[in-house]
Amino acid sequence: MKYLCIEFINTEWxxxxxxxxxxxxxxKLILDFFNSWNIDFKKPLQNNQIEILLxxxxxxxxxxxxxxxxxxxxxxxxxxxxxxxxxxxxxKNIVFENGEYNIIEVLTNSYVNLVVYKIISSFFxxxxxxKLSRINYCKNPDCNWLFYDESKNKTRKWxxxxxxxxMKVRKYRNKLKSSNNHLL
Length: 184
Ligand SMILES: [Zn+2]
Hints:
binds zinc ion, Znf_CGNR, ABATE domain-containing protein, two-stranded antiparallel sheet, ABATE_dom_sf, alpha+beta, ABATE
C-alpha cells in the first residue's frame, strides 16, 4: 500500500542516491511525481512554493521517523501540521459526470497550494486508517527508505532485496572479522 505523504518523504532519498539531486527542485521530476498521484498543476511551482514543500517534508519526516523509532511525537509538530491546513476552505458542489451525479469538494481560495493539502490529507488518512504503525524505514543505514510493512508481525527490515542482501553480506563479513579476531 502506498501513501502520498510517505512517497513524498522518500523523494529526499534521491539527493543521496541514483540521481543525486533534489527532485523537488527539478521541474520535470516534481511534475512526474505529482502526476503519478493524479495531481496536476497547470504551471511550474514557484520557488516559495518549493520552499514550503521542503519544510513540510522535513516536518513529516520528523513525525514519521519518531513514530518508527517508538519515540514520542512532538505534539507541537501536529500544531504546525494543523497550521498548514488552516488556510484551506472548501465548498461542496453537485456535478453530472460520466453519467452520474457526484458531490465534489471545490477549493474556495485558489491561492493556496493544493499539493500541500493533498500531502497532509494523505498523512491524515494514514492516521485515521490506523496504519501509522505499518510504516517503517529500511535498516540499511545508508538507505532509510520508508515503506509500508505488510508482514503479519511488522518484522520487515529492508526496503528491497538489494538492501537485504547488502546488509546480510555486511553482517556475515563482520561476523567473520570478529571470529578471526578471536582466533588471534
Ligand atoms: Zn533500503
